[in-house]
Design goal:
The chain is of the alpha/beta class. Among the domains are: 245 residues, Rossmann fold (3-Layer(aba) Sandwich), CATH 3.40.50.300; 163 residues, no CATH class; 128 residues, PCRA, domain 4, CATH 1.10.486.10; 166 residues, Lambda Exonuclease, Chain A (Alpha-Beta Complex), CATH 3.90.320.10. The chain has 41 helices and 28 strands. The chain has an 8-stranded mixed sheet with strand order 2-1-10-3-9-8-4-5, with helices on both faces. A 7-stranded parallel sheet has the order 15-18-14-19-22-13-23, sandwiched between helices. Helix 27 crosses helix 28. About 4% of the residues have low confidence.
Length: 1120
């Protein structure tokens, strides 16, 4: 491919004037100047920022006086690593004088000055080490959190934020609990309940939930608009655009206006005079509707009748009715009324959603205060309030003046309007000559970014913020605007296609602001853009019927949809091409496979693994998506709930135990036999049937014997060990790591090991390790949306989404699915208009269907569509600029082709490439042998056995027997009260299982359990009909110590006179099981229960909290 010469004149601009590289970097890296740099991909944005830090340190700045802000902890860590690397390599002990002089010249310092500064650079590392401080390199939220600590108490109270609150990165982990509170609040308010039911009946429950989810994701915008008074008016009433319309009157009633009746009557007369059948039918329909309207019929039904007379079901004018002035007037009238009706209904639904959203956000705020939580948006709003408040900003600015001399911000195109307003509130005090209103010398400001790479609108990023910051620095701080379109990454052949594609997009009005790029690289053989053969879509010929003719085992063979077959073909072709690239000498780590969706990447991973090509998903993934985690959680499920048969089956089939299908059939047969056999079992199901079968099956296989032994040991340990210690023991004794890694493919071993380690780590970190039982830990795991960091595998092909690839590079980049199905119009969504110069959104509109956007919001919707299209092109720019030498694109023909897909833009410039199909690699050749490092075994110190004194042994045996009985009874009650109370047979089975577990006597266990569960005094604590909430082995904290309550219930108890106390919080009961008949007489027991009661009272300050012992005879001993 012949590429235009893109390496002649580097594209550097200062205030619009072209300059050479030396002059450009002399300004960009000068720490005394205010600078905004717009730099293309591969231009070295982070290099410039860290270079400026280096020069600021040389200029005499103290490390703590430099504040560098970026968006991710990873990016902040890379900045610190790069600065530390430079300080080391340029130090007197490592670097040479010539290297230091060259480094300074690269950063815009002339030769003479570089010679003078070289000695200072040589000693810079030691100077910083002696100072003992480091450069402040933070994320936006880390900096805002620092500001929060300095905020006055009155402001924090106003914002509903606690100074020592726990920062949560993803409040979605708490979403389910907030929505439960929200529905409770809705049910308690008649007006809100009416709004809720109206939207459910009109739009459906799932669509309403989707609308609420949209509100949840844009709660910052909604609350700011509501506080500014622009929320309710975001969807205007029809009278705002239709003169003469009455406020509060449904537009369907406008057909009663005499002028409207006359227009429709004239149309009916003209149609009736036409004489054709269709005209006569339409005329009669209009006359019937007029008669219905005259009889005071339903206005909406009357309008629908008029509409049906002149329009088809597809809302197009009926053909064959003529084109006379009467018909045109009637059609124009009905279209106008239809638009007004749509606007009116959208306005009403918008107000209903506003009211519901306010309740949702109020419940969220209450929940966060009660839990001491603060989310990222709270930090941003606190920073804006703190820096923008007229009475506080001077004090805050004075503190910042004393601390910050240099401010540097990376990737500024990813900034949100709220973040920009926080910065602008601080920096605007310096605007103007002499430091503006502050009278102080402003900190030097360096902002670098690239609006072409803004692809985070879903995180509130707004590329127009970059333009606002650029104008502010130039006009307010008298700074300079620099542009760099010269890349050090992309080969000329890649850049030639990039320039052609985006220059054309610019000419078409789709990609404003693009300037042709130049490159520092020389032409490379084989470089450029290639296209794999397009996967064609065959004619749809009864796919379902064809699938039905082929028998498959539905338990072991998944159904493959036709669409997935096509996607698999594309993934296979990508894998074949990757194999050819690696055969040509490119290392696996220098190959990236990019796609918008993870599903295509999973297919590509499978195709690569089948060829023996190492590959790795580089981005974070959901912890529960890892099969190794699900297997371990299944083991914990069984230990916490032995009646969980499905978890037991999963655990047994997992690599941990490796049981076969025959083993599970043997257990299932034993379970069926225990119920009497036959098609109709003679006995009720035993919740512990599978657990009992595992421990009682005759002639078990070696795998079942191993599972039986290990589960027995682990169940005893689960009663006394916290989750981490229990998991650690399971992983060690069960040889989990070794067995799992031996079972998975070599390309997945690193990921499998990382998943197991991540679960162990979460058992210590999750909720501060407050899940003190396996049951609570599993519940917390399922409730939270935890992520697992992908293990670094630099020698594997990198599989990435386009968002995950940002900031990375590779020699060869494959881009999959470049011709996807067009996005369908969204439903139950929000349209937001937030001008950069405004401190709040000016419009925040709930819109049910984008395909039927209210007329008065059409302009806003068109702007939203344009922003999405621009971000789509930004994603293409990001994808292409990851490649150093070659871009390879693939696609599948969609059902409905979009107007301009990535494939259509790139294919005319790409060289066709058809790789040869490959054969799957044999399993033994797929990877290296497995080798694990383990610590040597450590023998515990042997202690002399203690011989109990005579007379004490019997007492100890008695205590031990009582303790075992108590533990077994606790376990039976825990199992039995998780739903409907079990029958006598099931209760006997539970008692026998618990007795076997703790070594107690089964009759004694069953006798005590029956006495408690069948006691009339205890019935209210176990009957689900009277419970609002109930839990066993509930963990609470008191003075930093974790306490475990035997049973905690929330009752719908009746107060004096029978009045329900539910509205006031109900009654909480703290229950403690004791075998003795008078446990209250023992001070230790009494003080312990009182402590439990106090702990619950602190958590439920508005509710009544009572406490009682439940004795072994089923008596309830309530505390006074």
């Amino acid at each position: 491919m012949n590429a235009p010469n893109v390496a002649l004149r580097p594209a550097y601009l200062i205030d619009g004037a072209q300059v050479d590289a030396q002059d450009f970097y002399a300004v960009a890296c000068d720490p005394r100047r205010h600078v905004v740099v717009e730099a293309c991909a591969g231009a070295g944005k982070t290099w410039m920022l860290v270079s400026r830090i280096l020069r600021a340190l040389l200029d005499g700045a103290e490390p703590q006086e430099i504040l560098a802000i970026t968006f991710t902890r990873k990016a902040a860590g890379e900045m610190r690593a790069r600065l530390a690397e430079w300080l080391t390599t340029l130090s007197a002990d490592v670097g040479t004088e010539a290297q230091r002089v060259e480094a300074l010249q690269q950063r815009g310092i002339d030769a003479a000055t570089a010679q003078q500064l070289a000695p200072a650079l040589a000693g810079l590392q030691q100077r910083l080490q002696r100072a003992g401080r480091s450069v402040e390199i933070r994320t936006f939220h880390a900096w805002f959190s620092q500001l929060l600590k300095a905020a006055p108490l009155d402001l924090l109270i106003e914002l509903g934020v606690q100074r020592d609150a726990q920062i949560v990165e993803d409040i979605a982990d708490h979403e389910s609990e907030v929505f439960r509170r929200f529905h409770t609040a809705i049910a308690a308010d008649e007006a809100l309940r009416a709004d809720f039911h109206h939207l459910v009946q009109r739009r459906g429950r799932s669509q309403l939930r989707k609308w609420l989810d949209s509100a949840w994701s844009k709660r910052v915008e909604i609350e700011l608009a509501d506080a500014a008074g622009t929320l309710e008016s975001s969807v205007a009433v029809p009278s705002a655009s239709w003169p003469g319309a009455q406020v509060g009157v449904h537009p369907a009633q406008w057909v009663r206006i005499p002028l409207a009746r006359q227009t429709l009557q004239c149309c009916a007369s003209a149609l009736g005079a036409g004489g054709k059948a269709k005209q006569t039918t339409a005329a009669r329909a209009i006359e019937a509707a007029l008669s219905q309207e005259a009889r005071s019929g339903d206005d909406s039904e009357v309008f629908d009748a008029f509409w049906a007379a002149l329009f088809t079901q597809k809302d197009t004018p009926r053909l064959g009715l003529g084109d006379g002035p009467e018909q045109r007037a009637a059609i124009d009238l009905l279209v106008e009324l239809r638009q007004a009706i749509a606007q009116h209904e959208a306005h009403e639904e918008h107000l209903q959603m506003v009211r519901l959203s306010r309740v949702l956000f109020a419940e969220l705020a209450t929940y966060k205060r009660s839990r001491g939580l603060v989310e990222m948006a709270d930090l941003e709003r606190c920073a804006v309030a703190l820096l923008g408040d007229s009475t506080l900003s001077a004090w805050v600015q004075e503190r910042l003046d004393a601390r910050v001399r240099h401010l540097l911000i990376d990737e500024f195109q990813d900034t949100s309007p709220l973040q920009w307003h926080a910065l602008a509130a601080w920096l605007s005090g310096y605007a103007g000559a002499g430091g503006g209103a502050s009278g102080q010398r402003p900190p030097s400001v360096f902002i670098v970014g690239d609006p072409k790479q803004s692809i985070y609108r879903f995180r509130r990023a707004e590329p127009k913020v970059f333009e606002a910051a650029r104008d502010f620095v130039k006009q307010g701080l008298e700074g300079q605007v620099l542009s760099c379109d010269h890349t050090r990454r992309n080969a000329p052949e890649v850049l030639a296609v990039l320039n052609s594609v985006f220059e054309q997009a610019g000419r078409d009005g789709e990609f404003a602001g693009f300037r042709p790029h130049t490159t520092a690289l020389e032409p490379v053989s084989g470089a450029g853009v290639c296209s794999l053969p397009l996967v064609l879509r065959e004619a749809r010929e009864r796919d379902d019927a064809a699938d039905g003719q082929v028998w498959r085992d539905t338990l072991s063979v998944a159904r493959v949809e036709p669409e997935q077959r096509l996607r698999q073909q594309e993934a296979d072709r990508v894998a074949w091409a990757v194999r050819d690239v690696l055969a040509g000498g490119v290392k696996p780590g220098q190959v990236q496979v990019l796609c918008r969706k993870r599903e295509s990447l999973r297919l590509a991973a499978g195709a690569l693994e089948s060829l023996g090509v190492p590959c790795a998903a580089v981005e974070e993934a959901a912890l529960f998506d890892a099969p190794e985690v699900r297997d371990l959680v299944a083991v914990l499920d069984v230990l916490a709930s032995p009646s969980h048969a499905l978890s037991l089956a999963q655990a047994l089939k997992s690599p941990i135990f490796g049981c076969s299908d025959d083993d599970l059939v043997q257990l299932a047969t034993a379970v069926a036999a225990s119920r009497g056999g036959g098609e109709v079992p003679r006995r009720p199901p035993d919740p512990l049937a599978w657990w009992s079968a595992l421990h009682g099956v005759a002639e078990p296989s070696a795998a079942l014997r191993r599972a039986r032994a290990l589960f027995g040991l682990w169940q005893q340990a689960a009663a006394v060990l916290p989750p981490h210690d229990l998991l650690d023991r399971i992983v060690d004794e069960g040889e989990v790591m070794q067995r799992t890694l031996a079972a998975v493919s070599p390309t997945r071993r690193a990921a499998a090991r990382a998943a197991i380690d991540a679960l162990l780590a979460q058992s210590l970190m999750l909720d501060g390790a407050r899940g003190s039982t396996p049951y609570n830990f599993v519940r917390a795991l399922r409730r939270r949306r935890l992520k697992i960091a992908a293990p670094a595998q630099p020698d594997a092909v990198q599989l990435l989404t386009i968002h995950g690839a940002k900031g990375l590079e590779a020699e060869v980049v494959f881009i999959m699915d470049t011709q996807p199905e067009p996005n369908v119009a969204d439903t139950a969504t929000l349209l937001v208009q937030w001008p950069v110069e405004s401190r709040h959104p000016v419009c925040c509109a709930f819109v049910y269907a984008e395909s039927r956007c209210p007329p008065l919001l059409q302009t806003l919707f068109e702007a939203e569509v344009a922003a999405r299209r621009r971000e789509e092109l930004n994603s293409l720019y990001v994808s292409m600029t990851r490649a150093k030498h070659r871009v390879v694109v693939s696609a599948t023909v969609p059902h409905h082709a979009s107007k301009v897909s990535w494939w259509q833009r790139l294919e005319p410039h790409a060289a066709a490439w058809s790789p040869e199909p490959a054969v799957c690699a044999p399993a033994e050749e797929a990877g290296a042998d497995l080798s694990l490092k383990v610590l040597p075994a450590c023998e515990p110190p042997r202690l002399a056995a203690a011989v109990p004194a005579e007379g004490v042994r019997d007492r100890g045996d008695e205590c031990s027997a009582a303790s075992r009985l108590g533990q077994a009874v606790h376990r039976v009650l825990e199992w039995a009260v998780r739903g409907e109370l079990p029958g006598a047979g099931a209760l006997d089975a539970l008692g026998a299982a618990a007795a076997r577990e703790f070594g107690a006597e089964p009759p004694a266990v069953q006798r005590v359990a029956v006495a408690i569960l069948r006691s009339a005094a205890c019935q209210r604590f176990f009957d689900p009909a009277g419970l609002i909430w109930a839990g066993n082995e509930v963990s609470v904290t008191d003075g930093g110590e974790v306490l475990r309550i035997d049973r905690l219930v929330h009752l719908r108890e009746a107060g004096p006179g029978g009045a329900s106390q539910r509205a006031s919080g109900g009654v909480w009961w703290v229950l403690d099981y004791k075998l003795s008949e008078a446990p209250q007489e023992l001070d230790l027991h009494l003080l312990q229960l009182q402590r439990y009661q106090r702990a619950v009272s602190r958590l439920q300050p508005q509710a009544i909290v009572k406490a009682a012992f439940i004795t072994g005879r089923g008596a309830v001993v309530e505390l006074d």
